[in-house]
């Protein structure tokens, strides 16, 4: 079911649809979240069979997100393919030295670029929105190096506007909390492994089963689990009966220390552990790569 949009947002929606038509044919990196779902919907409305949704399959992607991606692709009606990625085979990815996301996205976009001719699409597009430009996103450098377009950024859409568009188009993920890859929960300097991402996935599913829909389980050195939930739910997590069940389950999963972060849920909280010089370098390299990609287009 659609809803009325404010004039300014309706204009941006139309710009988004026009941009998709101008691209001619696209493969959308569909993660199962609201941003890429809106891009996929816009692509399908504008291009029909010339639009394709692509979802990565690896231990860094939660099973619930893969299911959401498949379900939203069916809801939209867009063609959908699954591509196996092998970022855990990369030593630099496993080292998790603050640039892990760059190596992950490089692996993904290399595979998509290799497959793009067989799909018959001209461009790869992502769900990155303008709010992502204000955070540390080394994956944007990989995107720029591979000529990936970011339609939401190009028409100036931020997260709140994306959610409004998702509701306008009736997408079932319109209010889904952000769900970055599982490896993003592992503190820089702690090796990223499939075993650790699986433990994190099971720990977060436990919290969700108990009503904590928006949560993170961050893994630090020493197999320490740091639980982030909205501040208004901190008391519920600390309630004696639930606390005992949580401790037992997390210890069974292999966490040695289990902590509750009193500051609450913060997106990208582990980025504070990344050296400022590394962040600056990636920001500059991303700007240069994006300028080079625009010059080649």
Give the terminus-to-terminus CA distance.
Answer: 37 Å
CATH topology of the largest domain: Rossmann fold
Can you write the helix and strand succession as a string?
A: HEHEHEHHEHHHHEEHHEH
Shape: globular
Major sheet: arrangement of strands: 3-2-1-4
Q: What portion of residues belong to β-strands?
A: 5-15%
The total of helices stands at 12
Give a summary of the structure in a few sentences.
By secondary structure, the chain is an alpha/beta fold.
Description of the molecule:
The protein is built from 12 helices and 7 strands. It folds into 2 domains: 7-177 and 280-296, Rossmann fold, CATH 3.40.50.620; 182-267, Alpha-Beta Plaits (2-Layer Sandwich), CATH 3.30.70. The two termini are 37 Å apart. It has helices at 7-23, 34-47, 63-76, 91-95, 100-119, 139-145, 151-154, 159-168, 194-209, 234-238, 240-253, 276-296; strands spanning 26-29, 51-57, 79-84, 123-125, 216-220, 224-228, 257-260. Helix content is 49%, strand content 11%. With 297 residues, the chain is an alpha/beta fold. The radius of gyration is 19 Å and the shape is globular. It has a 4-stranded parallel β-sheet, sandwiched between helices. Strands 5-6-7 form a 3-stranded mixed β-sheet. The mean pLDDT is 94. Strand 2 (51-57), helix 3 (63-76) and strand 3 (79-84) form a beta-alpha-beta unit.
Secondary-structure map with pairings?
Blueprint: H1 7-23, E1 26-29, H2 34-47, E2 51-57, H3 63-76, E3 79-84, H4 91-95, H5 100-119, E4 123-125, H6 139-145, H7 151-154, H8 159-168, H9 194-209, E5 216-220, E6 224-228, H10 234-238, H11 240-253, E7 257-260, H12 276-296
Helix pairs in contact: 1-2, 2-3, 2-8, 5-6, 6-12, 9-11
């Amino acid at each position: 079911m659609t809803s009325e949009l404010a004039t300014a947002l309706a204009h941006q929606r139309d710009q988004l649809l026009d941009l998709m038509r101008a691209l001619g044919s696209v493969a959308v990196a569909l993660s199962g979240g609201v941003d890429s779902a809106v891009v996929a919907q816009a692509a399908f409305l504008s291009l029909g069979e010339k639009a394709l949704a692509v979802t990565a399959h690896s231990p860094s992607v939660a099973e619930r997100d893969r299911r959401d991606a498949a379900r939203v692709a069916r809801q939209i009606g867009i063609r959908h393919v699954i591509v196996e990625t092998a970022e855990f085979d990369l030593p630099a990815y496993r080292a998790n030295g603050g640039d892990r996301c760059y190596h992950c996205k490089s692996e993904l976009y290399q595979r998509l670029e290799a497959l793009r001719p067989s799909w018959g699409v001209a461009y790869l597009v992502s769900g990155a929105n303008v709010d992502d430009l204000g955070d540390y996103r080394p994956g944007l450098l990989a995107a720029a190096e591979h000529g990936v377009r970011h339609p939401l950024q190009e028409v100036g859409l931020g997260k709140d506007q994306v959610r409004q568009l998702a509701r306008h188009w009736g997408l079932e993920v319109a209010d889904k909390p952000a769900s970055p890859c599982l490896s993003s929960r592992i503190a820089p300097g702690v090796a990223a492994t499939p075993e650790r991402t699986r433990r994190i996935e099971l720990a977060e599913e436990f919290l969700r089963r108990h009503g904590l829909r928006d949560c993170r389980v961050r893994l630090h050195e020493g197999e320490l689990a740091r639980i982030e939930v909205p501040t208004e739910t901190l008391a519920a997590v600390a309630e004696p009966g639930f606390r005992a069940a949580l401790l037992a389950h997390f210890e069974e999963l292999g966490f040695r220390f289990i902590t509750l972060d009193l500051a609450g849920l913060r997106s990208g909280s582990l980025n504070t552990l990344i050296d400022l010089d590394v962040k600056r370098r990636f920001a500059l390299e991303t700007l240069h790569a994006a300028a080079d990609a625009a010059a080649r287009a």
